[in-house]
Design a protein that fits this description.
Elements (H helix, E strand, L loop, with lengths): L6 E4 L4 E4 L3 E3 L2 H10 L6 E2 L5 E5 L8 E6 L2 E6 L2 H13 L15 E4 L2 E5 L5 E7 L7 H13 L4 E5 L1 E2 L2 E2 L8 H4 L3 E2 L18 E2 L4 H13 L3 E8 L4 H6 L27 H18 L4 E5 L6 H5 L1 H9 L5 H18 L3 E5 H6 L7 E3 L4 H9 L4 E3 L2 H4 L21 H5 L10 H5 L1 E8 L7 H8 L2 H11 L6 H15 L25 H11 L11
Parallel strand pairs: 3-4, 3-5, 5-7, 10-11, 10-21, 11-16, 16-17, 17-18, 18-19, 20-21
Antiparallel strand pairs: 1-9, 2-8, 6-7, 6-9, 12-13, 14-15
Helix pairs in contact: 1-2, 3-5, 5-7, 7-10
Length: 534
């Protein structure tokens, strides 16, 4: 199985589980198992081949699964635990059970096993950047299914950046009317002269779409974490509503990669604007525990040049623009707290100044700054470029499709420890999980998304659920790829890309991930170092 259960022991007896078999137990648990096992078309009944029980003492997301001669017994700590028991039961079936069509009369021999399982980390996430390249709703729903299969439970949607705004706003309609599309897209390699495809690109989710995505995910034990990245990465916002900017410049949705000096004003009207946006998001998603507010790669030049903003900073008793950014993010976190949500930020926001104590920090620039955030009392989600930025190529080879740099392998992900052994117990206790990032500058379509995400996300699932990858992970992964084949996932083969996956060849060694990590770590010690991509 992937991820590896805490305990998996073989039993002597097996059980023949037929399509349409009965499932009994609490209604919410029955619903979860049926959703995890559509292949079986289980029918609710008073007693059945699959018997479910609720035991809160097991804890959140935990379950016990026993298959023997009398049938299948599942005991779950909650609905999510029942869903994950169903996913584990599915992995005991042949690969053919993952196909969309099969014989209605099918019966499956389930081997006798006892599984006792619970997650090591509560946050097991994938980040999808839909701002640089837009992915339609159907692709997001498909990703949710793949995450659920791997017991990944946080879908972080990066909904806005300089290159696009991706969600309807009924209060500020120019956001989706103007900022959701650009006239062309950069296609040059990194550090080469700009070149463009001259093809319009765009798209956005309606609020109804977002509600559907969130409900679909919630039913599959996945929480959607929306991100509105501020105050930087704001050029698309300012293309629609320049009055919320910090200068008199005119903006268009950015066509190239990287970032710009475009930055939202920290003044009260901007907070009111973002409060309205948060209300629309939360109204669509429903009650949500987390909203990501960015705080990364902020160029503060326009704030420094503004007499009005400088005076506002001074009126707040702050001594630097970095402190003003921290104040601005704290103000937004207060708004979210009033609505029952916690703010999540990238690590620059932590380095810039004091955050709300309940703000979660994503240390993308390395685990050293993550440790400092944990020591300061913040919960931390491990997100370092190495090894969790899946827009990096898996090998330093021109056979790979174009990537930002190289290389991050499946083995690198499997070897990662979200809560390192050399941290103190208190610091380790504040690591709530790990998350891989799929930045989409060089992920232009769903086929490339499959290639970049899988099977590296299988290794992430193992680490985030089990705490570490088992020594037998490579063998289990090789077997698991048969399931992905049956589903139709166009993953990167372990021995390298297939001929048709070698599109727009990568430039090896132009950006080495080890060099990137050295530079980024050094920047985390300077509160003013917020612009690595300019």
């Amino acid at each position: 199985m992937i991820p590896r259960p805490n305990l998996l022991s073989d039993l002597s007896a097996s059980y023949e589980l037929a399509s349409g078999a009965a499932v009994s137990g609490p209604a919410d648990l029955v619903d979860a198992v049926r959703l995890a096992l559509p292949v079986l078309d289980l029918r609710p009944g008073d007693a059945g081949a699959v018997d479910l029980r609720h035991d809160p003492a097991l804890g959140p997301e935990a379950y016990r699964l026993v298959v023997g001669s009398r049938g299948v017994e599942i005991t779950a700590g909650d609905r999510a635990g029942a869903f994950y028991a169903g996913q584990s039961l599915h992995q005991l079936l042949p690969h053919a059970s993952y196909r969309s069509a099969f014989s209605a009369e099918a019966a499956w021999i389930v081997p006798g096993v006892r599984v006792e399982d619970a997650p090591r980390f509560s946050w097991r996430g994938l980040h999808l950047d839909v701002a640089r390249h837009f992915f339609p709703k159907r692709e997001v729903l498909r990703l949710v299914d793949l995450m659920a299969m791997h017991k990944l439970n946080r879908l972080h949607l990066h909904l806005v950046d300089d290159q696009g705004w991706r969600v309807e706003s009924r209060a500020y309609p120019r956001l989706h009317e103007v900022s959701s599309h650009r006239s062309r897209t950069a296609v040059n390699h990194y550090r080469e002269p700009n070149a463009y495809d001259e093809i319009p690109h765009g798209g956005h989710y309606s609020l109804d779409d977002l509600a559907e995505i969130a409900a679909y995910a919630r039913a599959r034990a996945v929480t959607v974490v929306p991100e509105i990245d501020v105050p930087g990465h704001a050029q698309a916002i300012l293309a629609a509503y320049p009055e919320f900017g910090s200068s008199d410049e005119d903006y268009q949705v950015l066509e190239r990669w990287g970032i710009t000096p475009a930055i939202l004003s920290p003044m009260p009207p901007t907070v009111e604007f973002l409060t309205t946006i948060f209300d629309e998001l939360i109204g669509a998603i429903g009650e949500t525990p987390y909203v990501h507010i960015g705080g990364d790669e902020v160029v503060l030049d326009h704030w420094t040049a503004s007499a009005e903003i400088t005076a506002y900073r001074d009126s707040l008793g702050l001594s630097s623009m970095g402190e003003l950014q921290a104040w601005f993010l704290r103000r937004l976190a207060d708004v979210l707290a009033e609505r029952g949500a916690r703010a999540v930020v990238w690590d620059e926001a932590f380095v810039s100044g004091e955050l709300r104590h309940d703000t979660l920090v994503m240390p993308w620039r390395g685990m050293s700054v993550g440790r400092r955030a944990a020591a300061a009392g913040h919960e931390v989600i491990a997100t370092p470029v190495f090894p969790l930025y899946f827009d990096y190529a898996e090998s330093a080879s021109a056979d790979e499709p174009v990537a930002i740099g190289d290389a991050i392998t499946v083995a690198d992900v499997a070897a990662f420890s979200p809560a390192p052994d050399d941290w103190s117990e208190e610091e380790r206790s504040r690591v709530v999980g790990a998350q891989a990032q799929l930045w989409s500058e060089r992920i232009p379509d769903p086929r490339t998304l499959d290639y970049r995400a899988w099977p590296r996300a299988c290794a992430l699932a193992e680490v985030a659920w089990s705490g570490s990858a088992g020594t037998d992970f490579p063998a289990r992964l090789s077997e698991h790829l048969g399931r992905l084949d049956a589903i139709g996932v166009e993953y990167r083969p372990l021995d390298g890309p297939k001929p048709w996956q070698r599109r727009r060849p990568h430039r090896p060694a132009a950006v080495r991930v080890a060099d990137v990590m050295t530079r980024l770590d050094s920047m985390t010690h300077d509160a003013e170092s917020t612009r690595p991509s300019v």
